[in-house]
Design brief:
This protein is of the alpha/beta class and about 700 residues long. The protein has 28 helices and 19 strands. The structure holds (S)-3-Hydroxyhexanoyl-CoA.
């Protein structure tokens, strides 16, 4: 095996290149290689300075995350960075693509930094539940001050090369080849007789109480529950109080503490599964079909959101609406969405104008889709209406085009069977607002061709979405599981918990919203319509939240009507509890002959999660989700599941499946209709196994 760190001398400059694809992560061999290179540099009479480079498209993506949680191996990264800083000869780092985490820390060990245009520099460690652990929290504030360091470190943020130079994180900006730019800088330094410039030897930054307090205030609210962000602020504060060696020891202490948290394990699980979710063995070697022209049918909130997502990523979009008025309304929504992107700095005004004039058009006639490569219908959720749309698509679309439906629960197999080319049909279930939400459930009927599945995954990547493969059933992966834990919440309310306590308990677990706040946001008419739809096939033992029906009939449809479970006042955030809702619930309890009992918040959380995991186990067993990680990604990206818990299946493994099964069996003693343990859960417990074993 060739060594991942090479050393050669060019014109008096030692060029040290890290070549460790895919991201030049700082695994053990790279760390050792850098130490060896520093030893060699010190003794090399040919070299007056050194240049550190990363081979390929980026400088260094950070420490090797796959080593985390395993026993650490020498040399540790902080020592490596110190060795670079202690070099008696000047060291330059030339940064292209990205210098992240340990990658930036290596660059901060160097005495001079040149950032190539397009590069980003940052310390994203807190996103993984740790803090920078190789001097990042000590050297960054020494270079750019406490306030600027606090803008980056607790946010896990990156800055573009230009800003890095403005801040002083890098010394100069360059264009072109990083090797050439780095060599030119190093030669210039040698010619000028510039010596070393160790960042660690720079004076302690001023103790900026205002910035520290502001950061603590921000990060106790934002990413609620995450410990590493606040801990990273403590580490930055340490830089203001102690010399570098002590500061690095303190950083190391906090880093090790974070490394041992379950949050670190959860966040790193999330990092890896977000990538693995795209790796489907069935798609090995299957090329996606070419997609550049997209058709969207229906310009409501969903259709307009999908069109916006596609336009933002450079696709050409034709939107079909039934008449001019509807088309104009859709175009206005899309224009507003794009304006939002301009305001958030994601798009410039000129590009927005160009998109609207060149890449987007509306039409009333399906014939306008004759050249589209893929069409997504987002019309009213009714099987007959969908079939009519698909008949039109079947008639006008070119051979090889993909026909997709954005239905959130209708039978995609039945839709596919209604056209002459079922193998080209697939479900693409976007979440609202479609140009913001990351999740895309790719719903695959038996009849779908593999390259159509591959096309859906490639499209998702292009749109910046996380795609999860789902099988066909009512609600697919996410909404099917959601309906179960929602039902568990309703059962707890009937038994004695208040909806407000349920919401509070669920949020204390880390969910961004409780089920009743969520209901108010989505609109209580939606839940009512779902209950109506299911009424004909409902088991008589099932419990219907009659209080929710009553709210619907009172016209209290949630936020949009100012009243639902909560009472909303104009201009006020959140809603107030409504005693009338509690009266409606009391009435339902009386009808069911229920004497209300108290619930602890912990019991609410356990029942909510047990219902989720149990249904997820069924979804896995039926092959609706192929792997537990697909369920985890669905909940992280579509339902706001707290990322630091890794996902519900990861949480279940961490909690322990025997304990969860025990809970479900206990609950079944009082209600054996709702609480039937999933066979897969029982099997995993009997085999002393876990969900992770099914991730492949
Ligand atoms: C750290 O540095 C701690 C230090 O402060 C202190 C230590 C003492 N390690 O994302 P991609 C894999 S913590 C190992 O698709 P892109 C990734 O899993 C680290 N593996 O590429 C994937 O594998 P596969 C701080 C890594 O071009 C493949 O590389 N750094 C690492 O879209 C391609 O990844 C970070 O948090 C890693 N560090 O984006 C940065 N990074 O092909 C994390 C990636 O088998 N990384 N892989 O699925 C990223 O943000 C992106 O990967 C990056 C490239 C922007 C670099």
């Amino acid at each position: 095996m060739t060594h991942p760190v090479s050393y050669e001398v060019e014109d008096g400059i030692a060029v040290i290149t890290i070549d460790n694809p895919p991201v030049n992560a700082l695994g053990r061999a790279v760390r050792q290689g850098l130490c060896d290179a520093m030893d060699r540099l010190a003794d090399d009479p040919q070299a007056q300075a050194a240049l550190i480079l990363g081979a390929g498209k980026l400088f260094i993506g950070g420490a090797d995350i796959s080593e985390f949680g395993k026993p650490p191996k020498d040399p540790w990264l902080p020592e490596v960075v110190q060795r670079i800083e202690d070099s008696p000869k000047p060291v330059v780092a030339a940064i292209q693509g990205a210098a992240l985490g340990g990658g930036l820390e290596v660059a901060l060990g160097a005495h001079y930094r040149v950032a190539m245009k397009g590069a980003k520099l940052g310390l994203p460690e807190v996103n993984l539940g740790i803090i920078p652990g190789a001097g990042g929290t000590q050297r960054t504030p020494r270079l750019i001050g406490v306030a600027a360091a606090l803008d980056i470190i607790p946010a896990g943020g990156t800055v573009p090369a230009e800003q890095a130079v403005e801040l002083g994180l890098a010394d100069r900006l360059a264009e072109g080849d990083p090797r050439e730019a780095g060599l030119a800088y190093a030669r210039e330094l040698v010619t000028a007789g510039a010596g070393t410039r160790p960042v660690g030897q720079m004076p302690c930054p001023d103790h900026d109480t205002v910035a520290l307090e502001a950061a603590r205030k921000t990060w106790s609210k934002k990413n609620r529950g995450e410990v590493a962000r606040l801990a990273s602020i403590d580490a930055v504060e340490a830089a203001t109080r102690m010399p570098i060696a002590a500061g690095i020891t303190e950083e190391r202490r906090i880093f090790s503490e974070m490394m041992d948290t379950p949050q670190r394990a959860g966040l790193i699980h999330a990092f890896f599964i977000e990538r693995k979710v795209f790796q489907l063995p069935e798609l090995d070697g299957v090329a996606p079909r070419e997609v550049s022209q997209l058709g969207v049918i229906g310009g409501g909130t969903m259709g307009a959101g999908i069109a916006t997502a596609a336009l933002l990523r450079g696709l050409d979009v034709t939107l079909i609406e039934r008449d001019d008025a509807a088309a104009e309304k859709a175009a206005a929504t899309i224009s507003r969405n794009l304006e939002g992107a301009v305001k958030r700095g994601k798009l410039d005004g000129g590009t927005r104008d160009a998109i609207l004039s060149d890449a987007f058009r509306t039409a009333a006639d399906y014939g306008a889709l004759a050249r589209a490569d893929l069409a997504i219908e987002a019309v009213f959720e009714d099987m007959d209406v969908k079939k009519q749309v698909f008949a039109e698509l079947d008639r006008v679309m070119k051979p090889g085009a993909v026909l997709a439906t954005n239905t959130s629960y209708l039978d995609v197999t039945e839709i596919a069977a209604s056209v002459s080319r079922p193998s080209d049909v697939i479900g693409l279930h976007f979440f609202s607002p479609a140009h913001v939400m990351k999740l895309l459930e790719v719903v695959v009927p038996e009849s779908t061709a593999p390259d159509v599945i591959a096309t859906a995954f490639a499209l998702a990547k292009r749109l910046g979405k996380t795609a999860v493969r789902a099988g066909v059933c009512d609600g697919f992966i996410g909404n099917r599981i959601l309906s179960k834990y929602r039902a568990a919440a309703d059962r707890m309310v009937l038994a004695g918990a208040s909806p407000y306590q349920v919401d509070r308990a669920v949020k204390a677990f880390g969910w961004p919203m409780g089920p009743y706040e969520m209901g108010d946001l989505a609109g209580l008419d939606i839940g009512y319509a779902t209950r109506q739809r299911r009424a004909a096939t409902r088991d008589p033992r099932d419990i219907v939240p009659t209080w929710a029906d009553a709210l619907y009939h009172l016209g209290r449809h949630g936020q949009k009507t100012g009243r639902g479970y909560y009472i909303y006042e104009e201009g006020k955030r959140g809603g107030a509890e409504d005693p009338e809702v509690l009266e409606l619930i009391d009435k339902a309890r009386a009808e069911h002959g229920v004497t209300p009992r108290d619930f602890t918040d912990e019991e609410i959380q356990r029942r909510y999660m047990a219902a989720l995991v149990n249904e997820a186990a069924r979804v896995l067993e039926e092959g609706i989700a192929r792997r537990p990680l697909d369920v985890d990604v669905t909940f992280l990206h579509g339902y706001g599941f707290p990322r630091w818990r890794g996902g519900p299946m990861f949480w279940a493994d961490e909690t322990g499946l025997p304990a969860l099964l025990g809970d479900i069996e206990d609950y079944a003693r009082e209600d054996d209709f709702f609480w039937q343990p999933a066979p897969l859960l029982k099997r995993l417990v009997s085999e002393n196994s876990n969900f992770a074993s099914l991730n492949g």
